[in-house]
Amino acid sequence: GQQLNQSPQSMFIQEGEDVSMNCTSSSIFNTWLWYKQDPGEGPVLLIALYKAGELTSNGRLTAQFGITRKDSFLNISASIPSDVGIYFCAGRASPNSGNTPLVFGKGTRLSVIA
Amino acid sequence: DGGITQSPKYLFRKEGQNVTLSCEQNLNHDAMYWYRQDPGQGLRLIYYSQIVNDFQKGDIAEGYSVSREKKESFPLTVTSAQKNPTAFYLCASSIGNRDQPQHFGDGTRLSIL
Questions:
Q1: Which chain B residues touch A107 with a CB distance below 8 Å?
Q2: Which of A95, A104, B56, B61 is the most exposed place for a label (fewest CB within 10 A)?
Q3: Which residues contact B65 (CB under 8 A, 6 or more apart)?
Q4: What is the pLDDT of residues B23-53, one digit of tens each?
Q5: Chain B CB contacts of A97 below 8 Å
Q6: Which residues of chain A approach chain B closer than 8 Å at the C-beta?
Q7: Which residue of B has its CA nearest to A4?
């Protein structure tokens, strides 16, 4: 099946630093989503993007739907210890409908050093 | 509270046994999905159902079976034909409208004895 290229695979940062991660696809996407997964739990939706160029914030998190519709990035500002976890990008390739299953990246594992 | 409930949280299977993982949602979502997650890997789609009494294979359906007799329930059976069943299994659901995100349960960890 189709896959997304998510990078970096893992990150170790100091508390208070900003974080950036991104996701790319070989095909055009009409939806980009970012999830966070804590150990032993299911992913939780952070941000959903539906339009090319869209920039959306959720507290210290900001995500953008790339203008080419083939990429998205997630930024976390002023990281704190509870930001630790695995961040997944996910999306749907155009022209799939809303119930078409999402395609997921392999995740970025974030570690925060206090 | 509305949400997706997966049970059990932990499950152990003997060699050659079939086991069934439960997924129930009270969100009135039309679509439901099953994913498998291995350490250091992303989520791989096993089966999905867009409507009651209908389901489709995902990328790794071999050794698994599902049913969708009720809107709120989408159980996954891991059969003895699945030779490497140890993994974290995640159920998700979404509304029937276009471009709506999937929401996940808290997962079931399956281990082989």
A1: 41-42
A2: A95
A3: B76, B77, B79
A4: 999 999 999 999 999 987 889 999 999 999 9
A5: 98
A6: 1, 3, 6, 30-31, 33, 35, 40-45, 48, 50, 88, 90, 92, 97-99, 101-102, 104-107
A7: B42
